[in-house]
Amino acid sequence: MAAEPAYFVASDSETSGEEKSSFPIKDVAIGIDLGTSQCSVAFWNGSQLELIRNTRNQKLLRSFVTFKNETPSGGVSNQLAHEYEMLTGATIFNMKRLVGRLDTDPVVHASKNLPFLVQSLNIGVRPFIAALVNNMWRSTTPEEVLAIFLVELRALAEVHLKRPVTNVVLTIPVSFSRFQLSRIERACAMAGLHVLRLMPEPTAVALLYAQQQQQISQESTGGGNEKNALIFNMGAGYCDVAVTATAGGVSQIKALAGATIGGEDILQNMMHHLVPDMDNLFSSHGIEEIRTFGLLRVATQDAIHKLSFQESVQIDVDLGNGTKICKILDRNEFELVNLKVFEKCESLVWRCLHDAKVELEDLDDVILVGGCSYIPKIRSIVTSICKKDIYPGMNPMEAAVRGAALEGAVASGINDPSGSLDLLTIQATPLSIGIRADGISFIPVVHQNTAIPTRREVFFTTVHDNQTEALIIVYEGDEKVAEMNHLLGYFKITGIPPAPKGVPEITVCMDIDASNVLRVFAGIVMPGAQQPAGPFMEVRMPTVDDGHGWCAEALEKNYGTSKDLVTLQRKIQQ
Amino acid sequence: MCCSHSYGFLTSKTEPLAALFTTVPALSSQNRPDPVAKVSFPVNPTPPQGLKTRVGYRVGSGNGSVFTRAAVQDVVSVAEESCFYDLLGIPKTGTQLEIKQAYKQLARKYHPDVSPPDRVEEYTQRFLRVQEAYEILSDPNRRALYDRDMAKGLHFARRRYQNYDEDMEDKSQWKSRWQNQVSELKRRSNYKDSGNMSWGARMRRQQNESSS
Fold first, then answer.
1. Origin, by domain of life (chain A) (predicted)?
2. CA-based nearest residue to A97, from A51, A146, A43
3. Cβ neighbours of A241 in B, within 8 Å
């Protein structure tokens, strides 16, 4: 990478995704699993999937970027002498937990005791993050850090494949909002990468499972029956669950559930358990505190790893500030401290099964992947709910990236004579998308777990007599109160012909294409009219930018209920 | 396949009377790469006011039936053949297994990820129809309703099938099981939570501290 700029910005347009379908597919897209703590790259080599190794023969690459002088370097090329090196303040990691979040987000607040600087002013804007370079806090953004890392991944892939790489399939957490997805796309664009698909992590695993099942059914006679599988994925940052129905190489995603909960939360819980006043100790973020924190973090992480394979562990660490921790920790204590995390995992599994409407006895396989799948408690939670042993054919650390590379080959239109690419994922929407109406309610137009591509519409009407304008405020989520969901954008419909309230019909239609691009259409139809009253609006979402924390509040303050809508109640005729 | 046209079916779960129609503003429909929105419409040359309107009707709504009138004759001519069973290519006595298999086979053919690049638009529309047929026929309640209407020759209306189940009986079994789980989890966490501060509580405390 040397002295040339570490990355270049290809596009700063919110509509960069517009290229999606028109982008010429020259090369087979590679798969990237961009994890909170580890990344990997895989590709279809013409006959099978292959993971790319770096110069030190590693397949799993640590996700971090170290800022030194003017040249940042990431975990792809950079060798760490020791784990502590990552904890000096000069290195930014956990980007995936920070990207696309506002400074009012609890996950951002929980990141404040990381060695680098995370500042939040609680005003609904992007948090300020900075790395310690030559004793100065140098500011950066999660997107920039991700882009630097992606440039390294791209360079690694290009050297290995001996061709330029532009098209990628990236795995993402189920719980990411469309705004967060747009930030990931932005980071990719900054790194000169074109996102062919963003795939929720468990759906990538589901595709790999579909391929395995197809191979099995081809070998055996008969077969071809539908198989239901539950996929549980938990890494450092996120927990995702999916239920898939698989037959004939087609993986139909029946339901998705996810939350921002992962190994990082377990680690934070344990550190707080060992040093209860940790937040106060490290709040000043001085050089000494950062060093102390590093020692604590490494010792705790080490203990957690050991507890996956042994019943108890001895923690012995001198934090150097007069505090010594000398303690024997056993699994029971560990599980008690992280009770909330495990309960959340449990509820995600139940919710996903419920939403998929798959009965437990109809579940054929249970697949566990991700770093946290090694934790005995996690394994016992999932197996005791599903009453099944864990499916043996998945490498927990490689399944997602392999699935992404498979999708890369399939979506690039590659065929394989053996039929091993005769595959398809029918994706589903992880979150509902709708608008604010009926007061402050969230009225979904596209419901959660709807198969995509899809088109759905709902009819609304005015709340005031002679109301001439209406605000369409689009949210994504599953909370009943609109504002509790993720704001995606807003626009105004004008020119509603004067009429008593409840008469004009406002159509709101949402279209999601196979590339997961969301378009919102809205227009006015007057009763008895042959044609709509004026042109329809078409808006690509999300349209919001970084400072959208208080947008909804500002709209409320400026407009009150003057431009509100209610759902149109129709008389049902038998 | 019985349907030779490519239709944009727009269905809604919350809309009690499912509608099917496609609207695309004429201005932006030209240079759009999106296969779904760039549908080319075989009927109804561009109407005034910059809107292409086509194929769609609702039943039972007294007003706003602009889409109905725009399309009635067209729909009827096709609808005679295009019942959901024909669409999936299965007999009316088809089993759930046959429905699932037919759906997956047709998805392999028409899903935009795997359809031939020059026919993505047309195939996407077909996929949306196959998806709708599958969703209704794979649900025993909605299928029964559909079968009943089809016997009366009313099935073109596509009433209610889309949202039939949402708040009704078929969820109740799951719902009660789910609620039992949740209350059990709550009970357990109350019981065990006395000693350690919860993750959520700490989040709240941190947030309070940082904002003060």
1. Eukaryota
2. A146
3. none
